Amino acid sequence: MALVSTRGDGSSWPAPHESGHRANPWLTYSRPVAGEYPLINLWTSDEGYVLTAELPGVAAEDLDIAVCDNIVTLRGIRKPEPSENGQTYHRRERGLGPFSRSLELPFEVDAKNVEATLRHGVLHLVLPRSEKDKPKKIQIQTA
Amino acid sequence: MTAQTTMPPKQEAKQSNEVERTRSRRVFAARTDIYERDDALVVIAEMPGVTRDTVDVTLEGNQLAIVGRVDAQPVEGHELSYAEYEIGDYERRFRVPDGLNADEIDAVLENGVLRLVLRKAEEKKPKKIVVKEN
Q1: Is the pLDDT of residue B7 over 70?
Q2: Is residue A119, in this structure, part of any structural domain at all?
Q3: Contact between residue B96 and residue B119 where contact means Cβ atoms under 8 Å apart
Q4: Which phi and psi (to 5°) does residue B122 adopt?
Q5: Secondary structure (3-state) at A105
Q6: Which among A93, A97, A100 is the nearest to B33, CB-wise?
Q7: No. of H helices and E strands in chain B?
Q8: Distance (Å) from the C-alpha of residue B134 to the closest C-alpha of chain A?
């Protein structure tokens, strides 16, 4: 199953296991569809994924994370600076406004055990694979 | 979603001098807003992953330098298998106007955003003339 962007423009990304990407230093960086925010990195293991994203200036209360089956949605707002008296801009490079991005994962997420931390403007989102989607491990009983 | 600014991916910082760095990490230009108000110049730089202990701000004459180090560790027990952004340090240099008070710079780092308020020296502030009425 492919990891697919659920934006209406039909864009899609290759799933991690299909892309042939390996850990650094040979990992190639993928360009997402222009305008996608935030950019994400995915760390994978048998237990599930860890998604990281850079969200500078976004406070925890301005970020909404929703998980439904195998769809993860990040939604929030990059707030503008409050306007001050006699303010004249010399340079404006930072983006602002609302954003939303959804990902379809190749497994069902155990929503109860999702953990999200936002520290120093970096989101760290732990997305465990749900128990029923995991390969069963058979316990061997000893006498 | 609307009202979303399309931003290019991170851009590498310009190498400003011949001195070589001791870290082999890539260096990106922090995305920065700068505005002026009556009493100060305000500089807002995005440096996700930078902490209070890994940021350096210096004002030497007219040159403002912002340098931030990112000490990100790989996620334990996981393999990075899909990446859209690269992790690196941040650096940015600006030529700022004369007459800023180097001893009076407020610097706050919050959610990976550095906010500097560089106060103008007294004589550079616009004087408001009080008109008296007879």
Answers
A1: no
A2: yes
A3: no
A4: -45, -45
A5: coil
A6: A93
A7: 0, 9
A8: 30
Interchain pair A86, B37: CB under 8 A:
yes
A46 within domain boundaries: yes
Tell whether A53 is covered by a domain. Answer: yes
Kindly report the pTM of this predicted structure. Answer: 0.79
Contacts for B63 with CB less than 8 Å, ≥ 6 apart: B93, B94, B95, B96
Which chain A residues touch B37 with a CB distance below 8 Å?
84-88
CATH label of the domain that carries residue A115: 2.60.40.790
Host H or E run for residue B65: strand B63-68
* pLDDT tens, residue order, chain A (143 aa): 334 444 333 334 444 443 444 444 445 677 666 778 999 999 999 899 999 999 999 999 999 999 999 999 999 999 988 887 778 999 999 999 999 999 999 999 999 999 999 999 999 999 999 988 777 778 898 87
Per-residue 3-state assignment (H helix, E strand, C coil) for A27-96? CCCCCCCCCCCCCEEEEEECCEEEEEEECCCCCHHHEEEEEECCEEEEEEEECCCCCCCCCEEEECCCCC
The two three-digit tokens of residue B29, written as one number: 């230009």
